[in-house]
Each structure stands twice: as structure tokens, then as C-alpha cells.
């Protein structure tokens, strides 16, 4: 192995590889001891693990990272370069800094809190940014050290022992793995698979036979078409499909996020050992039924490269092949990863070479190949399997669909999530004699929503000094929204901040002063509510008691971007009769900037009259609700008396579409 790797020095200790990033961290003599100590011991060199360690160093404490494999950066450096971000403006703290550093790598600009973010990038660029962060903060990273034992004293972890015989001790621990291995070995409760809708009062959990990433043409599932007795083609379950909303132990599918290119030096798709064309017979039949693609995504990430993901009914997701992965032994996991690699490499070989496919499909696929300058240690193939979901902690607070939809908003927020509730397919089944996929859910959220501090810590009785920012406490369908790399980084920074406060207080992590925690997080650039709070702002939501109405107004949450739990509309009827007034209670007389919020859609009215009642009289503005949705639209600055004399009135006379009433905001000017 080379003695130098991106300014990080490699040291072999007991069969492990240690990456010492820079010289400002723990000294080499301490690292060479059989027992290594740090204030924060992080298990998992994912993006979350790196951010947790960096934050602890920034707060003046020591930290180290243990990684059971050889890859640093998780999915962020493992091919997922087309970031699933939701509302990117809600990404703050070190996560936002990471994406600003990515932008700077491409453009050479100085990184400031206001510099641009770049959320689309090549894998090696993400790796360089993480290398920089580790080096600047002197964070040692141990590679190839797998957790063997958790040492406890009462309800606290005191040390971790790894399979090479080393011990890593400290007062605080973070499980940053995608699998939740430290959490499980520490005896923390967790869930696997999908809950029934009835468990948490949800609507899109459990079995979901829907239309997304579904076969759009009938395809026979039997080895001998039309003959059930001949058996099913590979990957198809013989189990009957349970009713929608039924819970089970199935896991959404995994794949690899490939970095592809059409460059002349591309690596042709390899034919893997163990390739079996029978594994793709179902896809062949789908093509013969008339499907022409696409078979995978080709989202560009820069310099002619892609982040290529699953797309459609039969693609890079190895549906049904990962059910045992979350709790499997290391050896079994390695075999599952190898099976996924063989399946996906075989799929790409099949699409590019099988003579039974139309020439157009073979030619268009073969025009792509693996990027020669990415993942050079593994022949251009990504080293990180996309473990979309494994164990999920069950703690004092479980994030559910209600959080995602904004129907509940926790007060102990330590970060925001905003991506669609997204579950990939969980099984391939037979319905009425044809093959169907089951499990795909893609349901949007109205906007960024807060994640409870209680969801990233176990209950105190189970463990008083552990944080779980990746396999956090969430239902299956809510985890489908939370499980994004920016969110993992956000929650990891919050976890490390809380760890420092718990150390200072000498108490369990569950008793950290959340107000103090939130104050420090805001100081470090985290966003804890959305839209971000403005000092002195007063928001009157449509659900506020001070709202008065005339005529008929209907509640809805169909179009995202609303404030609170819903918005109201006039049903495009009762024009001139339907009116709605937002009345604030202003604490002092003075000038206030007034804004209005709505959700936009082409069916909205473009000419909604809005009356601002203020100290100088009434000012009428006209707003176009076909655009500018999900944001505060200024109506002007006006003088108001203290109390409830001022208001904003939405009228409907003469309007040419649906009129929406969501919220009004008053900010001292």
C-alpha cells in the first residue's frame, strides 16, 4: 500500500489500516496503543460519521472514526453524486459547507457561509472534500476494523472491541453505519421491514401495490409461458400479495450507483463470473412485449459522467435479494454484496451484448461504460452498495408520515428533512397471471420538516451515551424521506454537538438541554425550522383562531409548499362571497413588512385581490397564484397600531381560478 494517500498517512496496526489525517489530532503514540481513547468514538466512515467527528473537533474535543470496510464517505463518495436534496436551501451547517466546498473544487471560489452550493458532483471530488475536512481537523480513521464486542457499564457504553483485538474507549459514541450495527450490539431496540399502516396511523406504509416503477405491459412470469406448473422466473415471489397497508419484514431494494461515461477511455461493462442469462429472461420478455427503455438513469454530474440509478420495472435494483442483509453476519453480507454486484454487472452486460435484444438497445447501452478515473481500486465499479434501509431504531420518538406531511411539528428539532417519501420496490409478485412489482412509493412532502432530537438517541434505559443519526427512529415510509445523505450529515453534526454538551454536563445524552443545543446549532448554521425564523415575525396560518371566513372554504394538502398542516381554497365557486381574513395580534405599533403565502398551480387564479388593512387605511394588491408558490410574497411595508386592528383580507370576486388562503406574515420593519 502506498505510504501517502491524499496527504493522509497510513499506519498498519494489528491488521487494520489507520488513516491519520493531519497532525493536529491524537498523537501517534496514543494511536499505537492497544487501547485508543477519544471523547467521541464514531463507528462508520460514512458522510455522517465524518461530519460527526469534524464537529466534535471543532468544539475542542477529540474524535476518531472506525470503519469496518475500506471505503470512506459512504454513498456520497460511492456514486451518489446527484444528491437527493429536496429543498436544498434547508441544508445548513457542515452539510451545507460540504456542498459549498464541492462548488469551490469546481470553480476555485472561496468558501463562505453565503457561497454557492453544488449538489451534483463526481465521486472523486466528494472524496477530496472529505479528505480535506479530515486532514484539517486531525481526525484519525481506522479502516478494516469490524465491531466485535460492545463493553458496557450499566446503561453506558465504555468501549468497543474490534475483530483485530483493539479496544476503542470513550465517553460518547455515534453509530454512523447504514446498518445500525453498533446500535444493535449495544442492545438498543430496532425495527426491520415495513410496519402496517395501523401501527402509527399512516396511509402509505406496509404493502403498496402501485403504479411507480411498474410493468406497463403484461409479462408472463412462468418459466414456460402460460404454464404455472413450470415454476416462476428468477426473482419472482410465489407468495400471494397481502392487502395494501399490511406490515411485513420486507426491505426495499438495493443497488449500486454507477458512474458512467461515453468518453473514449470508458471501461466496457464487464461480464461477471457467474453470469446467467436466465436472470434477465423477465426483462427480455418485457422488451419483446414492446418496452424500449430507458433501463437506467443517466443524470449528469459533470465532465460527461453520470450518477446512474434504477429506473423502471426491471433495472439496477436487485428486488427481493436483500431481506437478510440488515442482520446478516459479515461473511453473509459480503456474499449478498457480491450477488448484487454480479446481478447489476450482468444486467449491463446483457443490455449491451445479448443478441436477442434489438440492436438499438445494445448499441445505446454499449455507448456507455464505467468512468476510468473513478473507483480505480475496484475497476471503475463503485465499492459502496446502496443500503437504502436496514435497521431502524425504535426510541422515545418515532418519525412517521405525519411528520413528513407537516401534520405534527416537534419542538426539539435538530435538523430538517425535505425529500419525497420514497420507497423502492420490495418484491416482485404475480397478479392475475402477470408479473408486478410491489413496494414503490413516491409521495411528496409539503416542505422541510423538523426531526426530533429524541429520534436520534435511544431511550436512556437502553443506552445513555449513544447517538444514531443514520438508522434513526422512524417508520419505514418516513425513513424513505429522511434517508438522504444531506440529512444524515445534518443529524450527525447535531449528534456531535449534543455529545459535547452531554460531556460538559456530565449527564446522559437524553437529558441534554435542548434549548442550549438548538442555540449552538443555530450558531453553527443549522436550520431547525422552515421557513427559517425571522426575529419578531408573526405568522397567521389558515388554522389560526384569529382567521375569519365568509362563504365556503375547503381544506387541502394536495399541492406542496404550504405553511402548517394544510391550506384552504374557494373551490373556484362563490366568487365575491368567499372571503378569508388573517388578523395578527401585533405587540407594538410600528412599521411591519407584510407577506402572503399560497401554493401554486396552473388552475389557480392569476388575479386575486388582497386588501391590507393598516393604520393609514386599506391598500389593495393583486397577486398571481399560478406562480411563486411555497414562499413569502411581499405585499409591502405599512404602519400598524398595536393589537388586532390590522389584517390581510383575501377576496375572490372576478378571479379566474381557484383562490388559495394559506398564511400571512408580519415582520417588524
UniProtKB/TrEMBL annotation:
Residues 538-667 form the Golvesin/Xly CBD-like domain. This is FAD dependent oxidoreductase. Pfam families: FAD_oxidored, Golvesin_C. The keyword Ribosomal protein does not apply. Keywords: 4Fe-4S, Iron, Iron-sulfur, Metal-binding, Oxidoreductase. The keyword Metal-binding applies. It comes from the Bacteria. InterPro entries: CBD-like_Golvesin-Xly, FAD/NAD-bd_sf, HdrA-like, TAT_signal. GO terms for molecular function: 4 iron, 4 sulfur cluster binding; metal ion binding; oxidoreductase activity.
Amino acid at each position: 500500500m502506498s505510504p501517502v494517500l491524499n496527504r493522509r498517512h497510513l499506519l498498519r496496526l494489528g491488521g487494520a489500516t489507520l488513516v491519520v489525517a493531519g497532525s493536529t489530532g491524537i498523537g501517534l503514540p496514543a494511536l499505537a496503543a492497544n487501547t485508543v481513547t477519544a471523547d467521541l468514538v464514531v463507528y462508520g466512515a460514512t458522510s455522517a460519521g465524518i461530519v460527526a467527528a469534524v464537529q466534535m473537533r471543532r468544539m475542542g474535543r477529540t474524535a476518531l472514526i472506525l470503519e469496518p470496510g475500506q471505503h470512506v464517505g459512504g454513498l456520497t463518495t460511492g456514486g451518489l453524486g446527484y444528491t437527493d436534496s429536496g429543498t436544498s436551501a434547508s441544508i445548513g451547517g457542515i452539510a451545507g459547507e460540504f456542498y459549498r466546498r464541492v462548488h469551490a473544487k469546481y470553480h476555485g471560489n472561496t468558501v463562505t457561509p453565503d457561497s454557492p452550493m453544488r449538489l451534483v458532483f463526481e465521486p472523486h471530488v466528494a472524496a477530496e472534500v472529505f479528505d480535506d475536512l479530515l486532514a484539517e481537523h486531525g481526525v484519525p480513521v481506522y479502516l478494516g476494523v469490524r465491531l466485535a464486542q460492545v463493553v458496557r457499564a450499566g446503561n453506558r457504553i465504555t468501549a468497543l472491541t474490534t475483530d483485530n483485538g483493539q479496544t476503542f474507549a470513550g465517553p460518547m459514541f455515534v453509530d454512523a453505519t447504514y446498518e445500525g450495527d453498533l446500535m444493535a450490539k449495544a442492545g438498543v431496540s430496532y425495527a426491520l421491514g415495513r410496519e402496517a399502516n395501523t401501527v402509527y396511523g399512516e396511509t402509505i406504509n406496509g404493502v403498496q401495490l402501485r403504479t411507480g416503477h411498474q410493468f406497463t405491459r403484461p409479462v408472463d412470469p412462468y418459466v414456460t409461458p402460460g404454464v404455472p406448473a413450470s415454476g416462476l422466473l428468477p426473482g419472482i415471489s410465489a407468495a400471494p400479495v397481502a392487502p395494501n397497508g399490511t406490515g411485513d419484514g420486507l426491505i426495499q431494494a438495493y443497488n449500486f450507483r454507477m458512474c458512467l461515461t461515453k468518453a473514449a477511455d470508458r471501461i466496457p461493462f464487464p461480464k461477471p463470473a457467474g453470469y446467467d442469462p436466465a436472470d434477465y429472461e423477465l426483462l427480455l420478455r418485457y422488451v419483446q412485449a414492446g418496452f424500449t427503455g430507458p433501463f437506467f438513469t443517466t443524470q449528469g454530474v459533470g465532465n460527461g459522467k453520470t450518477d446512474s440509478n434504477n429506473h423502471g420495472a426491471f433495472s439496477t435494483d436487485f428486488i427481493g435479494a436483500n431481506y437478510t442483509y440488515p442482520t446478516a453476519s459479515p461473511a453473509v453480507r459480503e456474499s449478498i454484496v457480491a450477488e448484487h454486484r454480479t446481478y447489476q454487472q450482468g444486467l449491463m452486460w446483457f443490455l449491451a451484448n445479448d443478441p436477442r435484444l434489438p440492436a438499438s438497445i445494445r448499441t445505446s447501452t454499449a455507448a456507455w461504460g464505467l468512468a476510468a478515473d473513478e473507483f480505480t481500486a475496484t475497476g471503475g465499479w463503485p465499492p459502496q452498495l446502496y443500503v437504502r434501509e436496514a435497521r431502524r431504531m425504535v426510541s422515545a420518538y418515532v418519525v412517521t408520515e405525519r411528520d413528513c406531511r407537516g401534520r405534527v411539528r416537534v419542538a426539539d428539532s435538530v435538523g430538517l428533512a425535505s425529500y419525497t417519501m420514497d420507497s423502492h420496490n420490495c418484491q416482485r409478485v404475480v397478479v392475475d397471471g402477470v408479473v408486478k412489482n410491489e413496494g414503490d412509493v413516491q409521495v411528496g412532502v409539503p416542505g422541510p420538516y423538523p426531526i426530533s432530537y429524541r429520534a436520534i438517541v435511544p431511550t436512556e434505559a437502553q443506552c445513555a451515551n449513544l447517538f444514531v443519526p443514520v438508522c434513526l427512529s422512524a417508520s419505514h415510509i418516513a425513513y424513505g424521506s429522511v434517508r438522504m445523505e444531506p440529512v444524515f450529515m445534518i443529524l450527525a453534526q447535531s449528534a456531535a454537538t449534543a455529545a459535547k454538551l452531554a460531556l460538559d454536563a456530565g449527564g446522559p445524552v437524553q437529558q441534554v438541554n435542548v434549548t442550549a443545543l438548538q442555540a449552538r446549532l443555530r450558531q453553527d448554521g443549522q436550520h431547525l425550522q422552515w421557513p427559517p425564523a425571522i426575529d419578531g415575525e408573526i405568522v397567521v396560518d389558515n388554522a389560526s383562531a384569529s382567521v375569519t371566513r365568509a362563504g365556503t372554504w375547503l381544506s387541502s394538502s394536495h399541492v406542496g409548499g404550504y405553511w402548517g398542516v394544510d391550506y384552504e381554497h374557494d373551490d373556484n365557486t362563490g366568487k365575491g362571497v368567499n372571503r378569508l381574513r388573517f388578523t395578527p395580534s401585533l405587540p407594538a405599533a410600528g412599521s411591519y413588512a407584510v407577506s402572503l403565502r399560497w401554493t401554486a398551480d396552473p388552475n389557480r387564479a392569476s388575479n386575486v385581490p388582497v386588501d391590507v388593512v393598516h393604520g393609514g387605511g386599506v391598500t389593495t394588491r393583486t397577486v398571481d397564484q399560478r406562480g411563486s408558490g411555497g414562499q413569502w410574497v411581499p405585499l409591502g411595508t405599512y404602519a400598524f397600531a398595536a393589537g388586532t386592528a390590522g389584517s390581510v383580507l383575501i377576496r375572490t370576486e372576478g378571479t379566474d381560478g381557484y383562490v388559495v388562503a394559506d398564511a400571512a406574515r408580519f415582520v417588524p420593519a
